[in-house]
Predict the structure.
Amino acid sequence: MSYDLMVFEPEAAPKNHDGFMEWYFALTKWNDGPYDDPARTSARLRAWVKEMQRTFPDINSPQAEIHLQDDEGVLGDYTIGRQFVYAGFAWSKAVAAAGEAERLAKLHGVGFFEVSSDGEEVWLPVNETLELAHQKRRSFLERLRRRFRRR
């Protein structure tokens, strides 16, 4: 199991949460490959991948063996689609990977979805920052539990 996230072209994704999750699940059926060619995605996503791989090199690259000897946790696993990049990282690097992924999403104007989050938060670029666009709705029972835990 790994810490997973996805960046995506904001114009390609549905703007409501249910629609977004349907889109996400359709993409992750992995039936539109190959998924290892950056040339098949947008310029913004290519730039995001290129910069992300400076900090978290691709586990499938020839240079990965060098990192495996030192700290295999620093490697990232990138799945490159036409409108998205899905990336997985070691849990030991989750905070650093999420921080860098979010920073680069802002820089390159792409959406950010933290796949491993229970809240299914989807962030979209707005004026050189990311704003929460939508998230999973909590059930009535979850909202009650949360309210009574605070007391």
